[in-house]
Amino acid sequence: MPHGEATVLTELPTAGDGADLQSETVQPPDDGYTDVLGNQRLWKKTLVEGRGRDSRPQSGDQVTLKLEASLPDGTPVESESGLIISIGEYDHIQALDIAVLLMELDEQCSLVTSARYAYGYSAEVKTSTGVVIPPGSVLHCTVTLVSVDDPIDYASLGPVESLRIADKKRERGNELFNREDFAGAVNCYGRAAKILEEHCQDEPGVSEARVRVYNNLAATQVKISAYDAAIASCDSVLGLQPDNIKAHFRKGKSLVSKGDLINGLRSLRSALERDPDSRLVQNEVAKATLELKRQQAANTAMYKKMLGLRDGPDNGGRGRQQQQQQQVSWIRRHAWLLGAAASVLLSVTLAGAAYRFNS
Length: 359
What we know:
Residues 60-149 form the PPIase FKBP-type domain. This protein has 359 residues and is α+β, with helices and mostly antiparallel strands.
């Protein structure tokens, strides 16, 4: 597998038992907390007043935070004196993206957040300090807003630094994908792709970086049933690497899921030609082929019913001759109907063509 891609050609993870905890609410340890979102999942209490509402940051601003985080039993999770994040870009837990927008410069506050806005419900997370956070864990944080700066100016950074930031956002997307936070993963992969497209076009290695990002983006879009977006991401990969197996496979699955079995099978078979030993691709090709045959059989039965034909034993040439005579007889009796239908179909087709041409 190319370095940095979130998945190989295996089934993507599905939500486990922890998904049932997503309706869980949390309560603050004492009075004075504000229910930030009105859903009892994120609480904020000001400990030290800041410099006033005019000093609050805006979405996209870079902020420097002092952060102390722990589990409800007091187990330390994280201690950062100079944590830098871009607000709204999923650089850290989502609770910070939400709550810091309500903080004033130099303010210190206490946050209590459910796992929904912290480390998720699907799997345990191991921090950089080696602390294991169980799935569904409530988090207690003390946050100080140290400084507020303008959003990153990628044009002034240059392509090398922009490429580094894009890769960091891709890696963050991988973390969120593995936690099954697919909305956050899409956000990170999308921002990484935007940086690569707009600020790193001529940098060596950018093509490989774009392939990794768009492949991971497509995998995530498939997970949330955003099939048109996934197809577009796969096409971006195939424009750079026409033989990329993952892109052919995910495009095929997306097309099949949209009901386009013929083109979906074409993409799946392209993946199978390039990886004939993949059981996953073989299974998807087999399933799509069976579904296509089932639909074709259903259509054939419908047409026979419309033509007044019945299935029965083939009594040699005589039986076939009788069947052909039935078909000719029906067509002669209903020639006017077929002609009318053809005229209507032609009119609709020409009208549609004229509309598309004039649009």
